[in-house]
Amino acid sequence: MQFDLRKFIATGVKPYHAEFQCDLSAYDYAGARIPQPVTAVFDAQTDGDEVQITLRAKASVHGECARCLDPVTREETVDTEWIVKERDLDDPDFDLPLDEKGHLDVDEWLNQEFMFQIPTVLLCSPDCTGLCPQCGKKKAECTCPPAEQTDAPVDTRLAILKSLLNR
After folding, report:
1. Confidence category of residue 150, pLDDT binned at 50, 70, 90
2. What pLDDT, in 10s, does the model give residues 61-105?
3. Collapsing DSSP states into helix, strand and coil, what is residue 9?
4. CA torsion, ordered 108, 30, 69, 38, to nearest 10 deg
5. Which Pfam families match (predicted)?
6. Which of 32, 34, 30 is nearest to 22 (CA)?
7. 17: left (phi over 0), alpha (psi -120 to 50) or beta
8. How far, in Å, CA of 37 to CA of 13, rounded?
């Protein structure tokens, strides 16, 4: 969805409201995906020489647990607000995705917000113990005997550190 911010600042007297579908399935969020289209709500209202814009959306994020590789599905929410002044539209360092004509790419803005919102490490549960290095099963289901401690020769200069570990 494209929104003409420049025109809205110049002529927008009444608030603008749009509810739209956005397909984010082509994007990769550190290994996670949003396979279904997201319903987003975009609002804009002017207050003299500035515009307050808000963007809200919920998405079902699909990925895999970083420790045990089980599938993970979680809901993430974007709820963001910006105040835009006309001078911001000509600023090359402005953070929102604008083209040279002052059109805001709301779909790209939503993508960027989910990029910040979705954690880079997804876990199936906070106490997930991961996989057994011997058999590859989840540690909670593993029946392997504990790995034997094979003591490598210790540098005598570091022996004091080893004694601290054995406390």
Report:
1. very low
2. 999 999 999 999 999 999 999 998 888 888 888 888 988 888 899
3. helix
4. -10
5. YceD
6. 34
7. beta
8. 31
